[in-house]
Amino acid sequence: MIDRRHHLLSVLLALGVFGCGRADEDSAVVLRVANWGSPAVESSFMALERDLRAEFEAQHPGVHVQVELIPGEGRYAPKLMMMHVADSMPDVIHLDASSAAVFVDNGVLRDLTPMIAGDATFELAAYFDNVTDIARRGDALYAIPLDFTPMVIYYNKTLFDRAGVPYPHDGWTWAEFLETSLALTVISEKAARPRQYGFNFINWMPGWLPWLWANGGDVLDETGSRATGYLDGPETVEAVQFLVDLIRKHHAAPGPAETAALGIDLFRAGRAAMDLKGHWMMLDYRADGIDFGVVSLPTNTGRPVTVIYESGLAITENTRHPELAWQYIKFMTGADVQRRRVASGLAISAHRQVAAIYAGNPIEDSFLRQVPAARAPWGARVERYPFVEELGREMMEDILYGTVTVEESLHQTALLIDRALGEP
Fold this sequence. Notes:
Elements lengths: L1 H14 L13 E8 L7 H16 L3 E8 L5 H10 L6 E5 L3 H5 L8 H5 L11 H4 L3 E2 L2 E2 L2 E7 L1 E5 H7 L10 H10 L13 E3 L5 H9 L20 H16 L6 H7 L9 E6 L4 H7 L3 E4 L10 E10 L6 H12 L1 H7 L6 E2 L2 H5 L5 H9 L3 E2 L9 H16 L5 H16 L3
Parallel strand pairs: 1-2, 1-3, 8-9, 11-13
Antiparallel strand pairs: 3-11, 4-5, 6-11, 6-12, 7-9, 7-10
Helix pairs in contact: 1-3, 17-18
């Protein structure tokens, strides 16, 4: 037990440690549910969430669902892990694919398989297999998926039409992507930088990881325990060099200095014709009045691939209300509630029946076509992966600022990752 606690504390140190608290339980039965987000942010989606909780409470008299919001992308997992060490975990947590391994691999969550097997009203096959499998370890399953998105290429139809460039198509190649990016890059004579870029590159490793996969490369080996031979392998070197050349040689995408100097989202501002994002960005793009299309990431191997980011609901191991927690998860992931949750366009329902409702919509169809080729992020399998992502961001920044070569930086970063993954 002492060794286990030391291991958990080492994970917390890698993630960053934050304080914790225990909710006041002044109802007969309080079901505590953790979610990321800020209580200061008001939206129609949050209002819907409140209405759904009220419905659940009405169906379960004497029960109060207490949502505990933990704002800040980097705070959620560390704070929950600290609460686990302090034995003050909520009953249900929203499990993000990017950090799922931290919880799944440290005994924080309850295996839902017995509950599923004993509940004739629940059908696991109703959910997309590769989305469900994100929280699976062997025969054990630790979360039921709520919603998800594959990462795709958005393109601004207005800018394409203005340039007379054909819209991209699923299955397009890197050569076609480069040709398209160059055709949509506009730079005035003697200008320091383009006034319009073909592609909006952002140094965010979850966003550029699929480019490595699209060339047959990767960050880690199949076991997720070694980076040397993979992050510094020839396929990965070629993929990173392709992105670097897009920025530094062809000037068809902004580097970190240009992005910082401009201080705007280039795609939303109409100054980049393409971007790589998830389903959630549709809300902003529609609000901006952008006429956009969606297409698969280009491939350099002939095989489509992308990364899938997912949110699910999990029951913590030490909950005092396991059956009530299971009823809450069934309610929130059921078809009726899912239909209302995804109507905003924030994400795709992991429930096949609900996702099929939107079939026939060109944008939704484009997203759904990417699902079979979508892979889980490494954070779903490797608990120290947030540290890997930080190293990756710094590595790419060093390369783009020209301080090291691609080959040298990838190799040195791979050695650092191996060292970090090998630590107890």
